[in-house]
Amino acid sequence: MLLKLTGSSCSGKTTLAYSVGERLGRIAVHDFDELGVPEDADRQWRSRMTETWVRRALEYQDRGVDLLLTGQSPLGEVLASPSAPLLDGIAVCLVDVSDEAQRGRLTKRDSDRWDAPAVDAFLGWAAWHRTAAPP
Questions:
Q1: Whether the predicted model's global pTM rises above the 0.85 cut
Q2: Per-residue model confidence (pLDDT) at position 132
Q3: What's the DSSP call for residue 32?
Q4: What pLDDT sits at residue 34?
Q5: Contact call for residues 67 and 30 (beta carbons, < 8 A)
């Protein structure tokens, strides 16, 4: 089974995933970006990587292990992966924080990396996730 924690950067996905993973047995925890993110990452790259992670989930599934995956891809992109129907199940949870908290986390974590327009883009992505998440 693929368990997906989704949301914008600095919403707490990775912290939550590793905390949950420590408490549960037979679960592998991974971050979508741990395989690397190219400078020119686009929707096609994200689709290919989503399929890579779904296939990894299938490998774990064959061993009786669930995959808890963090990342920013919405549920629709996971469901659109060619191998997704082969999974025993898919569950998704949107991890979200207030814009103020996210802005503070982005500034603290990557103070020299993101300028104001980039931080605003992350906040916009979080807002999109809130409207796109299944009820």
A1: yes
A2: 81
A3: G
A4: 93
A5: yes
Q: Are 133 and 18 in contact (CB under 8 A)?
A: no
Tens of pLDDT, residue by residue over 55-111, are 999 999 999 999 999 998 888 999 999 999 999 999 999 999 999 999 888 888 766
**Distances from the Cα of 66 to the Cαs of 26, 28, 58, 88, 104, in angstroms?**
6, 6, 9, 10, 33
**Cα–Cα distance measured from residue 11 to residue 48, given in angstroms and rounded to the nearest whole number:** 24
- Secondary structure (DSSP) of 99-125: HHHHHHHHHHHSTTT--HHHHHHHHHH
DSSP code, position 9:
T
Query: For 2-96, which CATH class?
Result: alpha beta
